[in-house]
UniProtKB/TrEMBL annotation:
Keywords noted in UniProt: Endonuclease, Hydrolase, Nuclease
Assigned protein family: Belongs to the UPF0213 family.
Domain of life: Bacteria
Record domain GIY-YIG: where: 2-78
Organism: Aequorivita sublithincola (strain DSM 14238 / LMG 21431 / ACAM 643 / 9-3)
Protein name: Putative endonuclease containing a URI domain
Pfam families according to UniProt: GIY-YIG
């Protein structure tokens, strides 16, 4: 079932943040981990899911992603810290 999500991934040391939107969070995070697409997230090893939010529609997920991308890192860190203060990989155990 397709469920719209906005999500944030980072690298091992939490230095680089990538913000994205997807209709299949499990599949998309796996693609990040496998570096399926060559681009920013694969180049900077952003494969640790640290934040995600579900939305009723894709339009709402995209609007939230745009809002995050237009903001600064501090705002993204605040969201991550509210949901995941230890910045653990929220997808841990999804693929075992």
């Amino acid at each position: 079932m397709k469920v719209p999500h906005t999500y944030i991934t980072t690298n091992t040391y939490n230095k680089v943040i990538y913000t994205g939107v997807t209709s299949d969070i499990v599949k998309r995070v796996k693609q990040h981990k496998e570096k399926y697409y060559k681009g920013f997230s694969s180049r900077y090893n952003c494969d640790k899911l640290v934040f995600y939010r579900e939305f009723p529609t894709m339009l709402e997920a995209i609007a939230f992603e745009k809002k995050l991308k237009a903001g600064n890192r501090k705002n993204k860190e605040k969201l991550i810290n509210e949901m995941n203060p230890e910045w653990k990989d929220l997808s841990e155990g999804w693929y075992e």
